[in-house]
Design brief:
This protein is of the alpha+beta class. The chain has one domain. The chain is 34% helix and 10% strand. It contains twelve helices and six strands. The protein has a six-stranded antiparallel beta sheet. Helix 2 packs parallel to helix 11 and helix 8 crosses helix 11. It is globular.
């Protein structure tokens, strides 16, 4: 069984990802994020776990009392400061799929961490028409949406945990989740691009945007920015002006270092508006003088 699991792709790593440090100073990292971004909520880590026992062994882990959406679980971590663990049993199919917690075969439903027959298999979920007539105009549109979602392959992991980064309980998490305004997110991206420039491409599947954030980041290891969807805002407490960045933790020191250099150049958050009728020449000259 262990060998079969190891054959299933796990959390992805981008080919050009920063080198993983020997250790992380989580309080210092969060302090750096807050210094340059003035975040309104706690950054959260998410870690996939091989077994339910691994999840239950985490210090001060909480379990949901009933079935919740994963965005609700993450909201409890970022707003309440809790450390929580879930299996596919604790989530609906649309939340379990992006994090690889659907059963791969009917037999898997009765394995540890399985759904006891309640959740569909990944193949059944990929062909679900449950959103037809609600979010999409036909069965074909609903299936196309399911097929388009980035998800972690099922069968490798039995559980996951989420916790504030500052707790250090998931050291290190597989991905970090940072919520912020568009202004905060562009400065964060600018920080990532200061050295080793790369153009970032992000996705938008529409509803079920968790596939664009944690689903894509877990699958590819790439920084993944999303526009949180209706469900994330209605159930997960995501604010009207918030976007979500999901990315592996190795990117955080790189982003903070880049934002520090941008700040020394006068490029920092909050971005002070000059005025829609003011001549920009003087402001531009301070940044670009003697540069061709």
């Amino acid at each position: 069984m262990v060998d079969q699991r190891e054959a299933i792709p796990g959390v992805g790593t981008a080919a050009d990802a920063p080198e993983e440090p020997d250790s992380y100073d989580w309080p210092a990292i969060v302090e750096g994020l807050n210094r340059y971004l003035r975040l309104g909520a706690t950054p959260v880590g998410l870690k996939m776990l091989d077994t339910v026992a691994d999840m239950e062994a985490i210090d001060r882990i909480r379990r949901p009392d009933g079935q919740l959406m994963l965005d609700q679980i993450i909201a409890q971590a970022r707003w309440n400061g809790w450390t929580l663990g879930v299996t596919g049993d604790d989530l609906g199919a649309q939340c379990a799929a992006p994090v690889g917690l659907l059963p791969t075969t009917p037999a898997d439903r009765h394995s540890p961490g399985g759904s006891g027959g309640r959740l569909p298999t990944t193949l059944q979920w990929r062909n679900s028409t449950s959103m037809s007539g609600v979010w999409f105009g036909s069965d074909e549109d609903a299936i196309a949406h399911q097929q388009a979602m980035d998800i972690l392959p099922s069968g490798r992991y039995e559980a996951l945990a989420v916790s504030p980064l500052t707790s250090g309980r998931l050291d290190p998490p597989d991905i970090c989740l940072i919520y912020g305004t568009p202004g905060q997110m562009i400065i964060f991206i600018n920080g990532l691009q200061f050295h080793g420039y790369k153009k970032f491409d992000f996705t938008a599947v529409g509803e079920s945007a968790c596939a664009d954030s944690w689903g894509r980041a877990l699958k590819t290891g790439e920084p993944s920015l999303s526009i949180p969807c209706f469900a994330e805002r209605r159930f997960g407490g995501v604010q009207d002006d918030e976007l979500l960045m999901a990315l592996p933790p190795a990117y955080l020191p790189k982003a903070i270092d880049g934002m520090a250099k941008l700040s020394r150049n006068g490029l920092r958050y909050p971005i002070a508006p000059l005025g829609i009728q003011a001549d920009p020449a003087q402001s531009l000259a301070r940044s670009y003088a003697n540069r061709s």
